[in-house]
Design goal:
CATH topology of the largest domain in chain B: MetI-like fold
Strand content of chain B: under 5%
CATH architecture of the largest domain in chain B: Orthogonal Bundle
Structural class of chain B: mainly alpha
Number of domains of chain B: 2
Strand order of the largest sheet of chain B: 1-2
Radius of gyration of chain A: 31 Å
Strand content of chain A: 5-15%
Oligomer: heterodimer
Distance between the termini of chain A: 32 Å
CATH topology of the largest domain in chain A: D-Maltodextrin-Binding Protein, domain 2
Shape of chain A: globular
CATH architecture of the largest domain in chain A: 3-Layer(aba) Sandwich
CATH superfamily of the largest domain in chain B: MetI-like
CATH superfamily of the largest domain in chain A: Periplasmic binding protein-like II
Number of strands of chain A: 17
Helix content of chain B: over 70%
């Protein structure tokens, strides 16, 4: 009975792990090959092991010394020391991590990479190591150390040859505990990482865009096997002991040597990597899944050749270190707070502006961009406001830019035709009707226009503050002068300049909250949206839910075109007939985003950065990249025209008319329209500007406030009472109260207990 | 013992003391600095902004409720588990089971959380408070198990024998001897689970839904948006919550032991 319970719990704990183990074989041994051949993954594993081993060894040694010292401390000093030791033990991880960030930033250690992580991980292990070693230390015979000192040993000698040998078992335990805690940690590593890839940061980068990297499923299996081996060895060893054979020192030594060897195998490549001169490494920091990975290898090869031609020694040592981030702010804090030394980064438009202002970017010299590279002038015209460089006298500097656009796209609505159709009976909106509503109300469907309140609880918004709030601003302006809420008559749609062309300045003011438009407009509609639509604020997790054919939770939501393109592409690849249930629509009057090449001030290998920019902008490489990533690049050329022809991108498309439903909503070309924003979309779109500190704070506060309110609102709905939690809490508090009352009312003076037998004196 | 060289020997603790001072004590003061000192000197703006917003209080309450549920469930599962394991005759089997229960931590916490999420989607179990609580329990159970196990195995066998000899049934022995003596383990286990649970952010992000927005997530948003003073205020609030729970736990264990000393870790 008892053991059944133990195994049941064990089963529950291991179930998710076994799922990964199972999935790791879904492609034969491919995932394993991937793990061992991808340099990013190998260096992540190596770094993690290196940090875990070194940090826990150091922590164990410091703790052993401390345990010795603490025994000889005065009572008060000891009490204070132990209280301080408890702090990191019971303090929340996130608080510890955050306070460490403050420390590192304040003392200017921000860019210390590996060393910083080591120092932080020692903190994870140290208090626990001390708590493990101290009780064992107390049991030691204090006379031994006195004897050693009396016999003339130096304190150091006494420590190493008298104390350490007796503490070995406790120290091993402490080491193991520290090692385990360090491997498990995510929060402290994430907060204090300035560009050192570890297992947890690589997973975090990958997960926000797609899925657990396949290679890490393989890694899970390997760790699982290691756990099994450890258990078997424990059992074998115990069997030997039972048979009267003494603990086999050779076996223990063998296991330790094995662990060290395995660690070494992971760590040595990292050390070798770190020994490569910086001029032989290109450090790139990009959005996850935002590049055709084969291009990285091809660039490495071609750049090696180029270096060899220039007579650079050891040209074949050149390599790319490619790391990924999940949002602009993460990028900003890596560069600004942590001073990471990336050579090439990919910030979005408003982030380029912010980083340029804060002196975090070098200008890009356009004369170093190859003549063969052709860029789409119409896009460059749009991005000029944030890429142009001005000197101290406010004159335009020729041939210098802060950034070159890499990819562009729109903000729009992705919907799941399957769910819309399934819900048709309930919502009285069929697919055709829904698509008509989209063209009619645009982003209004996220706010319940045209009867879409029927989708309450089934839509998503973005946690990313700028995007959700920009959409709220647009909708609010659309609704303001026009109670019908349609786009057609929206105030920003009929703006023309002298020449009769569309003038986007009003739209620009709206999404950047200038002029008559301020954040209160967004607050109002977002708060109303909570009541009418009960949206889920997601950070790319939503996309996974849309991609899962068994998951019917969401009907539609706010998405970037690149994410929508990626989701559709994946589903088309998976399905047999190349079809997918997802569609994407960007209404006129949206946000046009760009992600851009930029070179940070702290870059150390700009030559390679320029070579890489030239390589990616080459039209054939760009075409491959577009095909893989699913969003448009600024490069133009024959290869890209061919790709467009392949995709059957329509030349001319009326984006705003419901009559044209067959056009953009046609399943055959919707994907192409997602990858290549149509002309209308680009014309009727505005680009985000950088906010000043006050506005920035206002948007960030608002997005937290909205999520707070949203949680409160959903909680208040009757059907979300968590009976399980309430029962547990009531039960526990009742029993605690009963026990305390019992204790308080039964406080009789105790009889003096009989003296214990000597062996019981604990 | 104090006759020779008192100072030299306590100097062994010096590296530890220096390290802890720099990496624990100093950052703690920095939290206060960032929370209450803006560019224009002392300011309570961030703190007032936080405490006057009533939806913040709802978030704190929600975080407390979820963490309490998780920590108390961990006691309900962890105590019998530790008791059963401690009662197994073979020490080797005991260690093996403990090892097997702790070893999943070698697989990174984030990875395990996402694996649980995958599993739940696969069996159509909706993300939300229940899944989140389950995730917290599964993830932090070892932290509850270990202290209770250590305390239970530390109870001298003779106590139980005495109790039996004096005519107490196994049931009575359990409630009158084992349970009170394990209280210190339960309390330190409770704190070890409660603290990470109340401050979690990636778990609530992946396993929860729109109604499980927790205070840790809020801190994380502030941090990633580079709002250090706002984040420092929330960090202090979390610190206060943890401090409060330690205080309550101390009081409970004092009353429970009918003596002055607390039974913390």
């Amino acid at each position: 009975m008892g053991l059944t319970f133990v195994f049941l719990i064990m089963a529950i704990i291991y179930l998710p792990i076994l799922l990964l183990v199972f999935l790791s074989f879904s492609d034969g041994l491919d995932f394993y090959v991937q793990l061992f051949t991808t340099s990013e993954y190998m260096s992540a594993v190596g770094n993690t092991l290196l940090i875990a081993v070194v940090a826990s060894v150091i922590a164990t040694i410091i703790a052993a010394m401390a345990a010795t010292g603490i025994l000889y401390m005065g009572k008060r000093t000891r009490a204070v020391t132990m209280a301080v030791n408890q702090l990191p033990v019971i303090n929340a991880d996130i608080v510890t991590s955050f306070s460490l960030v403050l420390l590192f930033v304040s003392v200017g250690l921000a860019n210390f990479g590996l060393l910083k992580l080591l120092l932080a991980h020692i903190l994870i292990a140290l208090p626990f190591c001390l708590l493990t070693i101290l009780p064992k230390m107390r049991q030691l015979d204090a006379n031994l150390i006195d004897a050693a000192l009396d016999l003339g040993a130096s304190p150091f000698k006494a420590f190493t040859s008298v104390i350490i040998p007796q503490l070995v078992p406790a120290m091993l335990q402490a080491f193991l505990l520290g090692f385990t805690l360090s491997l498990d940690d995510f929060v402290i590593t994430q907060y204090n990482n300035s560009g050192v890839p570890t297992i947890s940061t690589v997973i975090y980068g990958a997960i926000s865009r797609r899925d657990i990297p396949d290679a890490f499923k393989a890694l899970t299996t390997i760790i699982f096997i290691v756990i099994l081996i450890v258990l078997v060895v424990m059992n074998l060893n115990a069997a030997r002991v039972r048979k009267g054979i003494k603990i086999n020192r050779k076996l223990v030594a063998g296991i330790l040597a094995g662990i060290l060897l395995l660690t070494g195998a992971g760590v040595i490549p990292v050390i070798i990597n770190n020994l490569t001169p910086r001029s032989m490494v290109l450090k790139v920091y990009n959005w996850e899944d935002y590049i055709e990975t084969e291009l990285l290898d091809e660039f490495t090869d071609s750049y090696r050749e180029q270096l060899a031609k220039q007579g650079v020694p050891n040209a074949d040592k050149f390599r790319i270190e490619y790391h990924t981030f999940a949002d602009n702010e993460e990028l900003y804090s890596k560069i600004n707070t942590q001073h990471a030394d990336y050579d090439l980064i990919f910030p979005s438009e408003y982030m380029v502006e912010k980083m340029a202002q804060d002196g975090l970017l070098q200008t890009i010299d356009m004369t170093r961009i190859s003549d063969e590279v052709e860029l789409d002038q119409s896009i460059l015209d749009r991005t000029k406001p944030f890429t142009d460089v001005y000197d101290a006298n406010n004159n335009l500097v020729a041939n210098q830019v802060w950034a070159i656009p890499y990819m562009i796209g729109t903000l729009g609505i992705m919907y799941d035709t399957r769910v819309i159709e399934k819900m048709a009976d309930e919502t009285k909106i069929d697919l055709d009707k829904f698509e008509t509503l989209l063209t009619q109300y645009g982003f209004g469907v996220l706010f319940g226009e045209g009867g879409t309140t029927a989708y309450e609880g089934r839509i998503t918004m973005k946690k990313s503050a700028r995007d959700s709030i920009a959409i709220a601003m647009i909708y609010s302006a659309q609704k303001d002068n026009n109670p019908s809420g349609e786009i057609k008559n929206a105030i920003y749609m009929d703006q023309t300049d002298g020449a009769g062309n569309y003038d986007n300045r009003l739209l620009q003011n709206i999404i950047n909250m200038n002029g008559d438009y301020d954040i209160e407009d967004a607050r109002k509609v977002l708060m109303e949206q909570i009541i009418t639509m009960d949206p889920t604020y997601e950070n790319d997790n939503g996309k996974k839910s849309f991609m899962d054919p068994n998951d019917d939770k969401f009907a539609y939501g706010l998405f970037w075109s690149c994410d929508a393109g990626l989701a559709m592409y994946e589903l088309m690849e998976e399905s047999e007939d190349g079809e997918n249930p997802l569609r994407y629509y960007a209404p006129n009057g949206t946000n046009l985003w760009t992600d851009n090449f930029a070179i940070p001030t702290y870059a150390q290998n700009t030559d390679a950065a320029y070579a890489f920019i030239n390589f990616l902008l080459d039209d054939e490489n760009a075409a491959r990249n577009i095909d893989y990533v699913g969003s448009q690049m600024v490069a133009v050329g024959e290869a890209i025209d061919d790709l467009k022809a392949d995709y059957e991108v329509p030349d001319d498309l009326d984006n705003s008319s419901a009559d044209n439903v067959d056009g953009i909503f046609n399943p055959d070309i919707n994907y192409a329209c997602t990858v290549f924003p149509n002309a209308d979309n680009v014309t009727y779109a505005a680009i985000m500007k950088n906010f000043d500190a006050q506005k920035e704070k206002a948007v960030n506060t608002l997005i937290v406030e909205v999520q707070n309110k949203n949680a409160q609102h959903t909680e208040d709905a009757v059907n979300s009472v968590n009976w399980f939690g309430i029962i547990i809490i009531v039960f526990a508090s009742a029993s605690l109260a009963w026990w305390l009352i019992y204790k308080l009312t039964h406080r009789r003076p105790r009889l003096k207990p009989a003296p214990l037998l000597p062996e019981h004196k604990a | 013992m104090k006759k020779i060289n008192f100072n030299t020997r306590s100097l062994f603790a010096l590296p530890y003391v220096i390290y802890m001072f720099i990496f624990v004590v100093v950052p703690l003061f920095m939290l206060f600095g960032f929370a209450f000192f803006g560019e224009n000197g002392f300011s309570l703006d961030e703190a007032t902004a936080f405490f006057t917003d009533c939806s913040q209080w709802a978030t704190i309450g929600r975080s407390l409720r979820i963490a309490l549920t998780a920590a108390l469930s961990c006691i309900l599962i962890g105590f019998p588990l530790a008791y059963i394991i401690a009662k197994i005759r073979s020490k080797t089997v005991q260690y093996m089971i403990l090892m097997a229960l702790v070893a999943p931590m070698w697989i990174n916490g984030l990875l395990r959380t996402i694996a649980l999420k995958e599993l739940s989607t696969m069996i159509n179990f909706e993300a939300g408070e229940t899944l989140l609580t389950l995730g917290l329990i599964i993830d932090y159970l070892p932290f509850m198990l270990m202290p209770i196990y250590l305390v239970i195995t530390g109870i001298p066998k003779s106590y139980l024998e005495v109790s039996a000899d004096l005519g107490a049934s196994p049931m009575v022995t359990f409630f009158k001897v084992v349970l009170p003596l394990s209280m210190s383990g339960i309390i330190s286990g409770f704190l070890m689970v409660f603290t990470p649970a109340v401050s979690t952010y990636y778990m609530s992000e992946y396993l929860g839904n729109q109604s499980t927005f927790m205070i840790g997530e809020q801190l994380n948003i502030m941090f990633t948006k580079d709002n250090k003073s706002g984040a420092a205020v929330i960090a202090l609030v979390l610190l206060a919550l943890v401090g409060l729970s330690v205080f309550i736990a101390n009081c409970v264990s004092r009353i429970g032991n009918n003596k002055k000393q607390g039974g913390l870790a």
